[in-house]
Specification:
Elements: H1 3-9, H2 14-30, H3 32-38, H4 46-64, H5 72-90, H6 98-110, H7 114-126, H8 136-158, H9 164-185, H10 187-192, H11 200-205, H12 210-219, H13 224-244, H14 256-275, H15 289-313
Helix pairs in contact: 2-4, 2-6, 3-14, 4-6, 4-7, 4-8, 5-6, 5-7, 7-8, 8-9, 9-13, 9-14, 13-14, 14-15
Length: 335
């Protein structure tokens, strides 16, 4: 985390500055598309967004980390410890993990519903035992905790020009759209972990089941039935993007370029998958670097235009809210 971002966010305590920086570093290593879009946010809001995504990445790494020697029971124990640490942080009693300290501070500042974190960790825990989803409705219940709540957590940070409740369904839908994109891109990798995140009824409608997917992954051979099912799954994802898009106009004008950039880049992953012939069982599709740079440049132009309009109107940037539990400055300022 840069000093400019921390100063703009009103984060002054050295330990807390280090915690937010750890979140930013974690995101920089793992999420190219997300990290590029986050650079377009107003400077005072970047810390909070990095904290939210950093916590999500930390929990995900517990479930799917590189240490394959850990059993599901051991991973469940680590999730339980994370949950206890988060509960302590949200109560204002401090937290052990830097990532948890940062996200607890963000939740306090922006009044984020603690239940959203509970739902998120429940879906993370499901990954330890659930290996497939018979219907889209079953998958959606999982995605509520793993993706929709991320959009809902982000909403207080981003700000809206409507009532927050009006924007919430769109924020949730955008989180689901992003995750459906990841599921499609990562079919092969998820299969290696023993999981299938494509709805069983959608696969069955096109004559596909897990053994066929495993055969294709193992042999490197294609099957027309698999391609047809993947095209259908991409169609579902594109429909959710359409449902989510009207919500962008409900956001604070200064954050719209960031979310629009993420919207375009993640939608571009679907285009890249199609361009690769839906060969997701054999390789990972990605938006070309040149395309990412062009979209980011367009987003930056929109950011500058939004700032120019705000300057003409005489609008002042909204500063970060103080910690809600302690009034101006917050109890955490001294930690």
């Amino acid at each position: 985390m840069t000093a400019r971002e921390l100063d703009a966010a009103g984060v002054t305590a050295p330990a807390l500055r280090a915690a937010y920086t750890a979140c930013r570093d974690l995101n920089a290593r793992h999420g190219r598309t997300y990290f590029l879009a986050a650079r377009l946010l107003p400077v005072e809001r970047r810390c909070a967004v990095h904290a939210l995504y950093g916590f999500a990445r930390w929990a995900d790494d517990i479930v799917d980390g590189l240490d394959r020697q850990e059993t599901p029971v051991e991973r469940d124990r680590r999730l339980g410890l994370l949950e206890e640490d988060l509960a302590a942080g949200l109560r204002g009693g401090g937290a052990d993990q830097p990532v948890v300290r940062a996200v607890a501070d963000t939740a306090d500042r922006y009044g984020i519903d603690p239940g959203l974190f509970t739902d998120f960790l429940a879906s993370m825990r499901a990954d330890l035992t659930v290996t497939d989803y018979p219907t889209y409705q079953d998958l959606y219940r999982y995605m509520h905790g793993s993706a929709a709540v991320i959009g809902l957590q982000m909403l207080p940070v981003l700000g809206t020009v409507t009532g927050r409740a009006e924007a919430e369904p769109y924020a949730a839908a955008l989180g689901v759209a992003f995750q459906l994109t990841n599921f499609l891109r990562d079919v092969g990798e998820d299969l290696d972990r023993g999981r299938v995140y494509l709805p069983g009824d959608l696969l069955a409608a096109h004559g596909v089941d897990r053994p066929l997917l495993e055969w294709s992954r193992r042999t490197g051979r294609d099957d027309a039935r698999i391609r047809t099912a993947l095209v259908a799954a991409a169609g579902v994802a594109r429909g959710v993007y359409r449902d989510a898009e009207p919500g962008i106009a409900m956001l604070d004008p200064r954050v719209r370029p960031c979310i629009r950039t993420a919207f375009v880049l993640y939608g571009g992953i679907l285009d890249a998958i199609a361009g690769d012939g839906y060969a997701v069982l054999h390789r990972r599709s990605a938006v070309p670097v040149r395309r990412r740079a062009a979209v980011a440049a367009a987003g930056l132009a929109r950011v500058l235009a939004a700032r120019g309009r705000a300057a003409v109107r005489g609008d002042l940037p909204a500063g970060p809210p103080p910690c809600r539990s302690a009034g101006p400055g917050g109890r955490r300022a001294g930690r």
